[in-house]
Write a structure and sequence with these properties.
With 189 residues, the chain is mainly α. 58% of the residues lie in helices and 2% in strands. It is elongated. The relative contact order is 0.17.
Length: 189
């Protein structure tokens, strides 16, 4: 039996909780403010960098870096949608040789969890590291610093959201978490 969503032709093997769909889309939206901020910086907008960083964060090399980082981060965020869409369970039919084949859950769950943990660790390290990048005197301060922080703050939710959506995917695909396998004290004899 398949679960049909509100859109015709879209089905997953088991119903996807509404909160998981919202959380998956939230991962995409979490990355957009920082992407827009980076693109503005890449095109030469004064985002508040001064000194050595102000000089380094200019020119075609920086613009290429910005576009690559933005493309990779947006692609990673968009892949989270596969955890709540049919193409995260079965290879789309238009893919040569593989189309229509079921995707083994560990092939989805493992990279999703590793990516989520990496993003969480990186964001926490940057945000909380004493003498880290945010303490650099060449980083934006004042209004420019506040704008940068507001653009990057949503990234702190990206990893935890992916972890939650991945757990929902694993449960939906029949993978039990360690807490689900435990026997409750009431059922033990």
């Amino acid at each position: 039996m398949t679960h049909a969503s509100r859109k015709a032709g879209v089905a997953t093997a088991q119903p996807v909780p509404r909160w998981a769909v919202v959380a998956a889309w939230a991962t995409v939206w979490c990355t957009i403010p920082s992407a827009l901020w980076r693109i503005a910086a890449g095109f030469g907008a004064d985002v508040g960098f001064t000194g050595v960083l102000g000089e380094a964060y200019r020119g075609p090399d920086f613009l290429l870096y910005v576009w690559m980082l933005t493309a990779v981060s947006q692609a990673a965020a968009l892949l989270t949608l596969g955890l709540v869409r049919p193409w995260g369970e079965r290879v789309p039919s238009w893919v040569p040789r593989l189309g229509g084949r079921s995707i083994p859950p560990p092939a989805v769950i493992t990279p999703a969890l590793l990516g989520a943990l990496a993003v969480t660790a990186l964001c926490m390290m940057v945000a909380l590291a004493p003498n880290g990048p945010l303490d650099n005197p060449d980083f934006p301060h004042g209004t420019a610093g506040m704008i940068m922080n507001l653009c990057y703050a949503p990234l702190l939710a990206w990893g935890p959201l992916v972890i939650a959506v991945t757990i929902a995917y694993a449960r939906r695909r029949g993978i039990r978490t360690s807490t689900a396998n435990r026997t409750s004290p009431a059922t033990q004899s």
